Amino acid sequence: MTPPLAPLKAQYNTHRYPAAVRESFYDQKTHFTQYLNTAIAKEAPTAAKIQTTAMSDEGQDNGANRNGSVPEIELIIKASTIDGRRKGACLFCQEYFMDLYLLAELKTISLKVTTVCMQKPPPDFRTNFEATHPPILIDNGLAILENEKIERHIMKSVPGGYNLFVQDKEVATLIENLYSKLKLMLVKKDENKNNSLLVHLRKINDHLAARGTRFLTGDTMCCFDCELMPRLQHIRVAGKYFVDFDIPKHLTALWRYMYHMYQLDAFTQSCPADQDIINHYKLQQAKGDIKMLKMKKHEELETPTFTTSIPVDLNEQ
What we know:
Layout: E1 21-27, E2 31-35, H1 44-47, H2 60-63, E3 72-78, H3 91-105, E4 110-116, H4 123-129, E5 136-139, E6 142-144, H5 147-157, H6 169-175, H7 178-188, H8 191-211, H9 223-243, H10 252-262, H11 265-268, H12 274-286, H13 290-293, H14 297-301
Parallel strand pairs: 1-4, 3-4
Antiparallel strand pairs: 1-2, 3-5, 5-6
């Protein structure tokens, strides 16, 4: 953890937004230029009570406040590499966004999400965090900078966080290394790598079919779902774009799982645009080639799209 952060200038614009979530954008001139404030209109009287309150030094009672008020958690995530403002395609950023969004929906916390353009990070970001890359979690003025520490903090110190972290070794092993198979497929671009990913997806499908539940460990979302679904979205979008890979339609249990995830605000509000997922891997493949890294004007102006359709009729299964 780092020492308490220097105060940052902020400008607030209020918008309707599901759950107790605010979203902001680091900007070179104004630092924070937009906040998406909380709550559907009918819930405004309670959801509008968003404040930062002191938390127990020992993190007792799973992060509950001494006065019983709701603590504000800020999550800094990478911005789009296309426009530098909207949500980027960082998997860990989306995973922790989903974890915290679920807690915000339960009103155990108030969540503020800030995007920062890492291609041109503003001076105050560099001052506070030096060369550290998001995700960064800020709780009561203290910043947690490493992925493992963020996960541990959510589990042990954020109100309600402990309930997200289900102990299931079978599921943990099942989803492990899935992302590495996608990266190998994109790099090698051969049939063997495709088959390796297909075998892994089939195992997840079989697990879901055998359990007969909406999510990986039951009918309630947990940390494993927040880890798996962003990776499935990258597989779907980037796999199709770069190597014409499709998740097979006969994996109906997996498609049913994805259907349920697509219905949840925790996923849709945290999900990057298709263009940002694709550009994420374009930049990786460019490997510093400035000509390849230069953004085409039509990409900057293109309306973001989000692939959330289901190619099979689940009612017939």
